[in-house]
Structures are given as structure tokens and as C-alpha cells.
Amino acid sequence: MSGALIHRQNVQRQQGLRLSFHNEHISDSVTLLNPSYYGNGQQERQYMRAELFKVINLRNNFAYPLAGSYFEAGVAQTFSWIRQERPLRQPVQSM
Fold first, then answer.
1. According to the model, what pLDDT value does residue 72 have?
2. Which residues contact 5 (CB under 8 A, 6 or more apart)?
């Protein structure tokens, strides 16, 4: 899930802020084979990402530019946390 707030000063200049939330899951077989995939036998991870960006587009034609310049810069920060949940159970071996 994500959302953005973009300020467009004119056709050539814009800046904005993007926020996104990510929720990733892996199967239990991946966790059994590699418990350190997400760490501590976790099967999911969640994180939030914030991005700031600035675009300056001084090209003479946006579709097929022949002259001019284009500048785009951005910075981002990811905030993650570990969700506390029960560890994955080991399969029961029959005798």
C-alpha cells in the first residue's frame, strides 16, 4: 500500500513525498530450510518506507527530447520492525 503527495510548480519542476507500507510473507518450508531468512524463524516482515524526490525537466520535448537537461534526485529511509509471533513448529516424527 502506498500514497504520494506531489507538488508540481510548473510543467518542468515537481517535488514530492511518497509513503509505502510493505507486508511480506514466506512459506513455512522456506522457514524450515533457512530459519535466518527473515531472522529468528519469522515467516513475515513489515516495513514502512518514506521517500522525498525532486525532478527538474528542462528538455525541449518530453516525448522525444533532442536537447536540454533532466535532473532527478531522491532520498529514502526504511523503517522496519519485527512482529512478535509464535515460532514455526517443527514437524512431528512418527515412530
1. 95
2. 16, 17
pLDDT tens-digit series, residues 12-46: 999 999 999 999 898 989 888 888 888 777 888 89
14 in Cβ contact with 7 (< 8 Å): yes
Chain mean position to CA 82: 16
CA-to-CA distance for 50 and 32, rounded, in angstroms? 32
Handedness of CA 20, 84, 90, 41 (dihedral sign): positive
> Phi first, then psi: what are they for 63, rounded to 5°?
-75, -45
Q: Pick from 54, 94, 51: which is nearest to 71 by CA?
A: 54
Q: What is the pLDDT of residue 32?
A: 87
What number of helices (H) and strands (E) belong to the chain?
1, 4
Q: Name the DSSP letter for residue 35.
A: T
DSSP calls for 2-13: EEEEEEESSSSE
